[in-house]
Amino acid sequence: MEHVACPISGSVEFDLRYRVPDRFALEQGELWHLVASRASGLVMLNPRPSQHEIAKFYEALDYDPFITLKSSASLQDWAYKFIRQFISLRYKARAVLKRVSFETSQTYHVLEIGCATGDFLLELKRQSPATLNLIGIEVSEKAARYAREENELNVFHGELLSVAIDEPQDLIVMWHTLEHIHRLSDTLEKLYTLLKPNGILVTAMPNLDSLDAQHYGKYWVGLDAPRHLYHFTPKSFAALLKKHRLAIVDMHALPLDSYYNALLSEQLRAAAQGKSGSIGAIVRAIIWGSLAAIHGVTPELASSVCYYVQRMR
């Protein structure tokens, strides 16, 4: 375990915000501390597993980015995969391509960090009018191998700071990845150097200012301790980026995340309280997911926010 300073202010003075369980290990009864920096307001996991200790907390194949790898799946898994493949990935690729304006006659360099099995890269390639030189990075060796062998993508096993990629990128994508990274400042500096002057970094993260985060509190699935190390809001993320000569140029909600987060939060709360899932929990998830999606019309209040970031000029 390690204690760390706030990456925005450098302060080591914190106030306890939540004690939260690991949603994959409720039976162990261990509670993780989420603390708020007195200087910046950023909420983060502290203390936290070190980079050498964290791997064991990703071993559950129920961790959603790796559901593609499961040999057998529940009805909920199949529903998740269907919605992800035919709705979510298509929406994300369309939203990104709308903002990057790739020209048909050009070739562009695209890097996805935390690409899992590479499904988004494939969808981006399918929709793009331009030729794309695609590269992925994935910390799961099994997922990276699947991306290479089954999806025929150029995917490196490792993390951004350990992989030899020096080619400037037109587009860098991180779907729900940045909040997992231990060496956050070093990673942002590397992202700055990899972005072309007009390149765009797209990163999506849960939003601690959202309606569903406030409603579910310590049972909000977006907290996901101990895998999520940082819990940003648009304000705190902008403050962090400024330190690294980066700035948010656009943002929007990911509407489906409102329902997904509400459903898993209902399930987590029921499990933590020793209750079984019920039709009532599904109804409540639909209601709170809908309310969160409505609030998400204002991106600063969305359940998950997709940020578009560029180098400061």
Radius of gyration (CA) equals: 19 Å
Oligomeric description of these chains: single chain
What is the count of DSSP helices, taking H or I runs of 4+ residues? 8
Name the average pLDDT.
Answer: 92
Q: Which range does the strand content fall in?
A: 15-25%
Separation of the first and last Cα atoms: 39 Å
Q: What's the total count of β strands?
A: 11
Structural class: alpha/beta
Adjacency order of strands in the biggest sheet: 6-5-4-7-8-11-10
Name the poorly predicted regions: none
Describe this structure in words.
- This protein has 313 residues and is of the alpha/beta class.
- It is 34% helix and 23% strand.
- The chain has 8 helices and 11 strands.
- The chain has helices at 75-100, 119-127, 141-149, 184-194, 211-216, 234-243, 255-272, 279-295, and strands spanning 14-21, 31-37, 43-45, 107-113, 131-138, 155-157, 169-175, 195-206, 230-231, 246-253, 304-311.
- It has a 7-stranded mixed sheet with strand order 6-5-4-7-8-11-10. It has a 4-stranded antiparallel sheet with strand order 1-2-3-9, with no helix packed on it.
- Helix 2 (119-127) links the parallel strand 4 and strand 5.
- Helix 1 (75-100) packs across helix 2 (119-127) and helix 7 runs antiparallel to helix 8.
- The longest helix has 26 residues, at 75-100.
- It starts with 13 loop residues before the first strand and ends with a strand.
- The mean pLDDT is 92.
In short:
The protein is α/β, with parallel strands linked by helices and 313 residues long. Helices cover 34% and strands 23% of the residues. Strand 4 (107-113), helix 2 and strand 5 form a beta-alpha-beta unit.
